[in-house]
Recover the amino acids of this structure.
């Protein structure tokens, strides 16, 4: 089977069985053996698109939310955004979204109003110092025993927890965008996080009908260690001559829930830049700084939240419309191109996905992940990888390590990010895959 073609019925059946096994494995091994404490109310700091989407997930489960932000405009817009998010996913019999917001949401600029919350989730700008300043202001208002968590996408928890007196009750609870469509939530274990805190975090995630996966600390954790190469390569291909449409069509044609440039718009170009910088600082040979991202940010095109990024959006809300290709962006891309050539769909898929396979093999080599099923769980339920392909490492195993390394050899001139790891090379010599 050509890896860019649609899976055949027999392949679909096997892939679905693998997905079921991955979910069953996580249900049996995920979380913590400690007893969780029920979370009866949640505080969320940051009333942007992500903060309001997390709030909506809590309301859907009937959990009261106190939403805090220092920006009056964000607080004014928050109830409408939450109600619209609830309306988007409303099922028959669900109470009217506006009534649920009135009943369960408190909006405030006063951190002291969070004192009654059993869990506080920080979801502010992806900046280490900004987050640490916030924690210092927040500490006097956290009740004894309350859990503090960051929705950071890449910053190591050990750096955020430095000097925190409640570091044993601090962890990462990382949601993925769009929250309503991504069932996975990463729970990141800090160097001092107690098992009871991890258990409470995992229990909370299940209570809002999401799927927890406990991961080890480190730049990008698990999911963004895999996502950044995907986004990085899309930006590089634009400079190498691929069109926006060709990249998006190849990715969605393979089965990805969104093309990489739309993913960047959903996350936010500024957030993508900051996350990429964290990974670049940790792994400078594998992440390339993109001038396109910088130029679009300078022009105020931060993605869907500002109504314009790589695409233009008729509404700044996260549930309306896929966005439209913008001639201004096409022109900007053309001015930064290093060369001008056409890419086949197969070339684009290899450029997007093979760096993810390499990074996944590094995570296994480093011991950050002990089982390839954790990788497949992460991409299937955190990144929108197609279930019909079984997961990233299932797909790579179907190709075979020998085929993967041969494809990488043709891409090796592009740099270290396409050099296979010792694990991949050893598997290729044995004729093995990630799954026996």
């Amino acid at each position: 089977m050509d890896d860019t073609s649609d899976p055949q019925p027999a392949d679909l059946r096997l892939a679905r069985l693998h997905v079921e096994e991955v979910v069953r494995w996580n249900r049996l091994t995920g979380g913590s053996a400690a007893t969780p404490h029920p979370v009866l109310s949640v505080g969320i700091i940051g009333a942007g698109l992500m903060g309001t989407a997390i709030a909506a997930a809590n309301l859907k489960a009937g959990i009261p939310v106190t939403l805090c932000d220092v920006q009056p405009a964000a607080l004014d817009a928050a109830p409408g955004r939450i109600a619209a998010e609830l309306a988007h996913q409303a099922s028959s019999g669900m109470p009217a979204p506006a009534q649920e917001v009135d009943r369960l949401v408190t909006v405030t600029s006063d951190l002291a109003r969070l004192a009654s919350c059993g869990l506080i989730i920080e979801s502010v700008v992806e900046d280490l110092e900004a987050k640490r300043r916030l924690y210092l202001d927040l500490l006097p208002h956290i009740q004894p025993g309350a859990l503090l968590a960051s929705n950071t996408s890449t910053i190591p928890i050990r750096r955020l927890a430095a000097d925190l007196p409640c570091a044993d009750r601090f962890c990462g609870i990382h949601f993925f965008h769009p929250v309503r469509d991504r069932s996975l939530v990463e729970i990141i274990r800090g160097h001092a996080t107690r098992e009871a805190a991890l258990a409470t975090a995992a229990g909370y995630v299940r209570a809002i009908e999401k799927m927890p996966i406990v991961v080890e600390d480190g730049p990008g954790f698990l999911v963004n260690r895999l996502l950044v190469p995907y986004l990085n390569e899309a930006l590089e291909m634009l400079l190498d001559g691929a069109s926006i449409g060709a990249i998006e069509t190849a990715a969605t044609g393979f089965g990805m829930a969104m093309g990489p440039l739309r993913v960047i718009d959903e996350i936010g170009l500024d957030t993508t830049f900051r996350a990429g910088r964290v990974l670049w600082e940790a792994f400078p040979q594998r992440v390339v700084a993109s001038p396109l991202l910088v130029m679009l940010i300078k022009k105020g095109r931060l993605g869907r939240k500002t109504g314009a990024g790589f695409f233009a959006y008729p509404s700044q809300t996260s549930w309306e419309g896929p966005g439209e290709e913008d001639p201004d962006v096409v022109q900007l891309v053309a001015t930064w191109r290093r060369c001008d050539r056409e890419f086949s769909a197969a070339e684009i898929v290899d450029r997007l996905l093979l760096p993810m396979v390499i990074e996944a093999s590094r995570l296994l080599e480093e011991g950050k992940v002990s089982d390839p099923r954790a990788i497949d769980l992460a991409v299937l339920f955190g990144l929108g990888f197609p279930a019909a392909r079984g997961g990233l490492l299932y797909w790579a195993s179907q190709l075979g390590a020998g085929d993967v390394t041969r494809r990488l050899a043709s891409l090796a001139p592009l740099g270290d990010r396409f050099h296979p790891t010792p694990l991949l090379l050893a598997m290729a010599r044995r004729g093995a895959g990630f799954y026996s």
